[in-house]
């Protein structure tokens, strides 16, 4: 895969071109004979198409999101109504996913449970990326004492045991939707900030930044208009991977009874199904939400990993980490 | 040398910040006095002792003086009348001398709680580490040996699947099959002897270790493939060494560096993971204790937990950083 063929097929984005050029250069390096196997590492061979797996994964995420958003409109049972079917009955034609120990419809509950899971996961990762990205760009571009201070803050955040941090935040402020979201985003911020800093350092040395500065652009303008777009595009791939992480983290919190107090998420449903008794008599109560969470996280991982290869962020991670 | 000093100063500052934040947060959450003396925390005890208020809780005059003396005593003992930074100073001073205070819930010294709970969690983490390394090293070597062949592709797909199962979900799946269905492992922690301990730790360690093993395997595989391109591999092959010997004796060792770094960093993830896993498998370990104490506002125990885990995390990270700077002098200059 020679480097110049890439140029004709890429979208208009200048940065995308830059990323592709870098990654195809590594392919040539990696194509050297590898012991007995002379094939290049597939992780490094960028394909120009995103592929069937990517679109299947995106399709599943879209389906779950659509169902979660439209849950009040769908012709499904009330997720909280007790005794909609017999207690602890397995999957059947009336209740596709069976019923739980008090006879609630598991299919409808799985769809409704997606609402809290996805909402908390989505908003916390977005907030984490915004705050962490800004911190990272500021410390990578300004360096000096700002870098030192922000580096200190991220390190303190990292050193806090994650679950204890959640516990403290939730005991202090309660279990509202936005508080749980904020608590989760705090956990995302340090790693995002470190990555954004590394990418920024690599870009801050480049000609277009120097040119903008020569033209008299203020620091704030250089950061917002020149550097931030270049940082955000490759990091957008990590947004999907991060969303998978926050959905799992919310599940863990809910499993401990620490997530959003009103309403329920997949994690809460798993907790309700995970008692010894329930596992013996009605294992599907735990397994359907586990399955839903697994498929969603798997899809996010597959799609995110494909996108990451597409933009190949890893290259720059070496510079400043 | 200056780098070393700077690193240690940084580490010290981080620890002070973490403990101070935790200390102030827990002091805001629960009124420490209420935890010690209960209802009398809200009574104006100076007035009771001075005899200005006779009737404290609507009973006979003169009651409550004894209780109020206990309140004053507790206030002095825990320095509750001092401002926050001074109280923090007292607390951290005791901490450094090994005095972790005593639990508000059952008046047991925190150090003895730690001594009882911590070994179980450390054993769990150790076994998880063994699982993670024991699975990931052979797996990584096998995958890299024939990179992109059938086994490697299948293992990549399997790794993706395993990576997408949340740790607590994996724990429940294992629990369902091995405890509920087949009854191979006990449903709670057996603390009789080392064999029963290890026996009951198999599933928890698998739930903690397998997701880590996937990460390590991916890292090791990439590094091994890079090392396999080195000329000394061709040389070893030309000498007529067996493939097994080349992989394990010559290629594995220089490829393990990246993985070992991550193993160190992952210790803190393990500490967090133990909280959930210990509650699923009812292991009376440190993570479970930390969680229960936080729920019931037993702040001395929570604080001790935060301090111990944060210190471990910062110490491991600093050690890894210093190791890095020793092996690669460029890090020192980049800061």
Commentary on this structure:
The complex is a heterodimer of chains A (321) and B (335). Chain A is elongated, with a radius of gyration of 23 Å. By secondary structure, chain A is mainly α. Mean pLDDT of chain A is 77; it is low at 1-41 and 313-321. Chain A has two domains: 1-30; 53-311, MetI-like fold (Orthogonal Bundle). Chain A is 72% helix and 0% strand. Chain B has 335 residues and is mainly alpha-helical. Chain B has two domains: 2-110, no CATH class; 113-334, Orthogonal Bundle (MetI-like fold), CATH 1.10.3720. Chain B is built from 16 helices and no strands. The longest helix of chain B is centred in the middle third of the chain and has 36 residues, at 110-145. In chain B, 36% of the residues are buried. At the A-B interface, helix 5, helix 6, helix 9, helix 11 and helix 12 of A face helix 1, helix 7, helix 8, helix 9 and helix 13 of B.
Q: For the record, what is the CATH homologous superfamily label of the largest domain in chain B? A: MetI-like
* CATH-defined fold name of the largest domain in chain A: MetI-like fold
CATH class of the largest domain in chain B: Mainly Alpha
- Overall mean pLDDT score of chain A? 77
Tally of helical runs of chain A: 13
User: Class by helix and strand content of chain B?
Assistant: mainly alpha
Helical element count of chain B? 16
- Percent in strands of chain B: under 5%
Q: How would a crystallographer describe the biggest sheet of chain A?
A: none
Quaternary organisation of the protein chains: heterodimer
Write the H/E string of chain A, N to C: HHHHHHHHHHHHH
Please tell me the overall pLDDT of chain B. Answer: 80
Can you name the CATH architecture of the largest domain in chain A? Answer: Orthogonal Bundle
């Amino acid at each position: 895969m020679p480097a110049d063929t890439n140029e004709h097929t890429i979208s208009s984005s200048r940065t995308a071109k830059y990323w592709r050029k870098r990654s195809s250069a590594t392919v040539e390096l990696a194509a050297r004979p590898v012991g007995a196997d002379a094939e290049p590492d597939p992780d490094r061979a960028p394909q120009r198409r995103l592929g069937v797996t990517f679109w299947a994964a995106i399709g599943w995420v879209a389906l779950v999101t659509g169902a979660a958003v439209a849950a009040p409109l769908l012709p499904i049972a009330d997720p909280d109504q007790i005794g909609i079917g017999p207690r602890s009955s397995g999957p059947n034609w009336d209740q596709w996913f069976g019923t739980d120990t008090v006879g609630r419809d598991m299919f409808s509950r799985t769809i409704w449970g997606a609402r809290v899971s996805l909402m908390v996961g989505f908003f916390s990762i977005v907030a984490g990326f915004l705050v962490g990205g800004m911190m990272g760009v500021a410390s990578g571009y300004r360096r000096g004492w700002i870098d030192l201070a922000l580096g200190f803050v991220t390190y303190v955040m990292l050193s806090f045991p994650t679950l204890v941090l959640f516990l403290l935040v939730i005991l202090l402020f309660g279990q509202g939707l936005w508080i749980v979201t904020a608590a989760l985003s705090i956990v995302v911020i340090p790693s995002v900030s470190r990555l954004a800093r590394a990418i920024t350092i690599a870009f801050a040395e480049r000609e277009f930044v120097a040119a903008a500065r020569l033209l008299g652009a203020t620091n704030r303008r250089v950061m917002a208009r020149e550097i931030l777009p270049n940082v955000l595009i490759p990091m957008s791939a990590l947004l999907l991977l991060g969303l998978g992480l926050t959905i799992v983290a919310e599940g863990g919190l809910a499993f401990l009874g620490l997530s959003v107090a009103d309403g329920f998420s997949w994690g809460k449903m798993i907790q309700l199904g995970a008692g010894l008794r329930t596992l013996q008599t009605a294992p599907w109560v735990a397994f359907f939400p586990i399955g839903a969470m697994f498929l969603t996280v798997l899809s996010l991982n597959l799609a995110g990993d494909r996108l990451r290869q597409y933009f190949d962020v890893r290259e720059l991670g070496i510079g400043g980490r | 040398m200056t780098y070393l000093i700077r690193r240690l100063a940084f580490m010290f500052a981080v620890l002070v910040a973490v403990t101070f934040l935790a200390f102030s947060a827990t002091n805001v959450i629960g009124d420490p006095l209420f935890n010690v003396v209960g209802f009398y925390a809200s009574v104006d005890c100076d007035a009771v002792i001075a005899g200005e208020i006779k009737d404290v809780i609507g009973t006979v005059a003169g009651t409550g003086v004894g209780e109020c003396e206990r309140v004053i005593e507790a206030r002095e003992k825990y320095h509750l009348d001092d401002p926050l930074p001074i109280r923090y100073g007292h607390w951290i001073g005791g901490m450094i001398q090994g005095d972790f205070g005593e639990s508000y819930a059952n008046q047991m010294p925190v150090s003895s709680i730690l001594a009882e709970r911590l070994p179980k969690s450390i054993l769990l983490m150790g076994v998880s580490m063994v699982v993670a390394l024991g699975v990931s090293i052979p797996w990584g070597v096998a995958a890299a040996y024939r990179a992109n062949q059938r086994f490697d592709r299948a293992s990549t797909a399997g790794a993706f699947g395993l990576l997408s199962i949340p740790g607590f979900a994996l724990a429940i799946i294992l629990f369902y099959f091995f405890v509920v269905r087949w009854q191979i492992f006990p449903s709670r922690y057996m603390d009789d002897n080392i064999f029963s301990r290890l026996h009951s730790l198999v599933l928890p360690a698998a739930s903690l270790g397998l997701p880590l093993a996937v990460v390590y395997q991916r890292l090791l595989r990439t590094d091994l493939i890079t090392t396999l391109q080195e000329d000394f591999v061709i040389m070893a092959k030309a000498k007529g060494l067996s493939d097994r010997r080349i992989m394990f004796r010559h290629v594995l060792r220089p490829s393990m560096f990246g993985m070992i770094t991550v193993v160190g960093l992952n210790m803190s993830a393990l500490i967090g993971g133990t909280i959930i896993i210990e509650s699923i498998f009812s292991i009376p370990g440190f993570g479970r204790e930390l969680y229960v104490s936080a729920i019931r506002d037993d702040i001395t125990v929570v604080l001790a937990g935060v301090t111990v885990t944060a210190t471990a995390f910062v110490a491991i990270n600093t050690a890894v950083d210093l190791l890095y700077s020793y092996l690669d002098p460029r890090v020192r200059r980049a800061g």
